[in-house]
Amino acid sequence: MTTPQDIANQFVQFYYNTFDTNRAALGSLYRESSSLTWEGRTFSATNNIVEHFTSLPFEKVAHQVTTLDAQAASPASLIVMVTGALAIDGAPPMQYSQCFHLLQDGGSFYVFNDLFRLNLSG
Amino acid sequence: MTTPQDIANQFVQFYYNTFDTNRAALGSLYRESSSLTWEGRTFSATNNIVEHFTSLPFEKVAHQVTTLDAQAASPASLIVMVTGALAIDGAPPMQYSQCFHLLQDGGSFYVFNDLFRLNLSG
């Protein structure tokens, strides 16, 4: 049986691999109804979300997942929380947190809600 | 109009105030269908969640919210992500992240999914 954690593992691996190699391709993971809140700014619909990702002012980015937790939110949706570190253009890694609400659409899942924050110490 | 951010602000303030003053009273915010994943361990149903909170091995705890983001997940539910710091028994604060999926029940919201992690560097 496929558990929420299995689905989340597979999704998160694909998501960050795509983010780190070809950000424009993240569009396939969102829909018109999706929202991204990135460092407090909210973008809605695939084209606005992708435009935000592709306009981020760095060339190289590498995500390293530290923790990944998942729960079923309904029979056809999941909540996924990730904590990790990301390194931009070779600078020292920064801690981040990201929360995804994934909805099932046929045999796959897309991102309905996405909330991202760097965790800079106080 | 009440926004998801307004509801989230009010919820989060009440949640951490209750956590920091009387953890046993957090039970009123969960239901039998709720789940908490706390540092990778999952507890389901109000009594198990409250038992976990009340068995945490510290006397004094103080949460300080750094960021709070919210999005509607449906007409009657919200995703809330918090980053912040918590101080236990007067020790130096530790960074944490917490993600809530809140469901509306009449005029109020309860916690359906709750995922908590400390963000320890490196």
- Looking at how many chains there are and whether they match, the oligomeric state comes to homodimer
Shape verdict of chain A: globular
Q: What name does CATH use for the topology of chain A? A: Nuclear Transport Factor 2, Chain: A
**Largest beta-sheet details of chain A:** 6 strands, mixed
Percent of residues of chain A in beta strands? over 45%
CATH class of chain A: Alpha Beta
Count helical runs of chain A.
2
Q: Termini distance of chain A?
A: 42 Å
Secondary structure: number of strands of chain A: 6
The residue fraction in helices of chain A comes out at 10-25%
> What does the average pLDDT of chain A come to?
95
How many structurally independent domains of chain A?
1
Protein model, in words:
The structure is a homodimer of 122-residue chains. With 122 residues, chain A is an alpha+beta fold. Chain A has a single domain (4-115), classed as Roll (Nuclear Transport Factor 2, Chain: A). Helix content of chain A is 23%, strand content 51%. A six-stranded mixed β-sheet of chain A has the order 2-1-6-5-4-3, with helices on one face. The longest helix of chain A is centred in the N-terminal third of the chain and has 18 residues, at 4-21. Chain A is globular and about 40 Å long. The A-B interface holds A 35, 37, 40, 42, 66-67, 69, 71, 73, 79, 81, 83, 95, 97, 99, 101, 112-113, 115, 117, 119, 121-122 and B 35, 37, 40, 42, 64, 66-67, 69, 71, 73, 79, 81, 83, 85, 93, 95, 97, 99, 101, 112-113, 115, 117, 119, 121.
